[in-house]
């Protein structure tokens, strides 16, 4: 667990881990609901037709249900993979292929393939496979395999190498899981968790509850034990029918019909408790939304919506209710109040109905279930009231601040919606960039920066442009698409390559440099400095001719890393400018903390200087140069009045349309260096 936590903490901020885990599980459960509900419907009608003596229709419906049950684990793997892929920069389809490959390997090695269909049959392994894929893709930063990408060949090579390594690791993992599962089953066995004995059954049920309380379906985790239980039950039923044995008290049917009514934790009692005693409108809405599912023993909406998982108060009745139910049913059968369970009822059969069938079409089974459900309601009641009291205070404070009432269920749906929207946006961005690269090209333009004191050129800022098929130029609005696809580092590398080539054609010095805009994502990459220095060496360009512009976002995103990166770059002679100063909200402290060489005052500050207050602010900000030892640059100077104003404020360098617009390299050479 600690290892997984540490692994995750490299990827996500610690406080978001459990929150994100909760939301991911809920979203996956919700996305699979259509399949689960279709199965529940098939079973319900299957039973109805069986009781009405339409055995052919009933058989078809049970076959349909069997098929749905068989494809569930694989679907789980696909949905979990699809959902988790959006948290990485890898294409969903590739991510899912990785997950399925791992899932199959682990399932084959563990003998977890369904009999008729040869499909993997353990949803828990499906989740683990998708999670392992997620960890792998995030750790090794696997990116989109985009045919039009500038570095397609090298990416393809990387993908092939990664797939190979991943499959080798998958093989090793599959062997390892066999050992872990054996160990786990052994521990359960040694601790007396044998579901066929009274005390063993209580332990088994408690372990199921504890696992459920952290969102793990215990039936999947204790798969081997469950299979054993199933086989023993079948053998006992067969022996009973042959007249060779009496029915066991404890059996698969016993657990399915009496200890998980409404889903794990006897959730139907919780549902009724909320409907009867809750004063929170949100909780009642949630319970109503969950009702059609809980009837079929599917409790994910309640489990994650309330939530019960990771909830120290609600976990107590969640474990206690099935235990009480276990003891009551056990003694009711042992002392002959009710007959022993004589068939295995599908776990999705609704409560009352399932008791009736389990006890050989005997109404006494339904009555026993009813008693247990009512007792369960009163066990849940004090815990629920304690929990909801605390919860409603919390809700009130949220309402006071935002006056928006947001139900937990709605936030879950929002989460699923945003995951789907993010995937849509990504694929649209991908399409746009694909056709862009197909039809046109990226080119660099350069804008002059001039000293206010000497009116000499001090640098050129490299600005990216897109030239479409007809030769029309577009400003870099497409940068958003690169950001969305986590492809900024790739774009920055392409820009660096082009600018360094261009720099060979310009007479540069440490007094006349070229400035490149570098994105937050690139600065955060561990190998950024080495890459840049090796490319400079390759083109035989001195680092003292180069400047980098970074925005405040880089500072906010990556504090520790940035300081080291800046120091390394500066020790090589590269200057670093803070771009767009004045557009962020915490610019001042950052300037003192980080050793910038230049500060570029955003045009928005200049636009604000039409009022006396705005002018005072610009004056004040321009003075920062002497405090922080930075060269101050005024961006976006368009008119003579603006120029006079910034000069009066003491700004050192000016950039703007008044001096020159961004222009192609050829024009720069012709205009400034032709003599
Ligand atoms: P930036 O780094 O602040 O670049 C200055 C922007 O101001 C440029 O817009 C430039 O054309 C524009 N500008 C210059 N003088 C004036 C003026 O007098 N008036 C007005 N209204 N605008 C002026 P551009 O080229 O559209 O670039 C927008 C932003 O896109 C840049 O802002 C920079 O953040 C980003 N960008 C541009 N090229 C690159 C690149 O190669 N790599 C990366 N990572 N980002 C880039
Ligand atoms: Mg810039
Ligand atoms: Mg700027």
From TrEMBL:
Keywords: Cell membrane, Membrane, Sugar transport, Transmembrane, Transmembrane helix, Transport. GO terms for cellular component: plasma membrane. Its main location: membrane. Residues 1-383 form the PTS EIIC type-3 domain. SMART domains: EAL (SM00052). The chain crosses the membrane at residues 21-49, 61-83, 95-118, 124-142, 163-184, 196-216, 284-306, 313-333, 353-380. GO terms for biological process: phosphoenolpyruvate-dependent sugar phosphotransferase system. Coiled coil: none annotated. GO terms for molecular function: cyclic-guanylate-specific phosphodiesterase activity; protein-N(PI)-phosphohistidine-sugar phosphotransferase activity. It is a multi-pass membrane protein. The keyword Disulfide bond does not apply. Pfam families: EAL, PTS_EIIC. It is found in: Cell membrane. The keyword Transmembrane helix applies. Residues 426-675 form the EAL domain. Gene3D superfamilies: EAL domain (3.20.20.450). It comes from the Bacteria. This is EAL domain-containing protein. It comes from Vibrio sinensis.
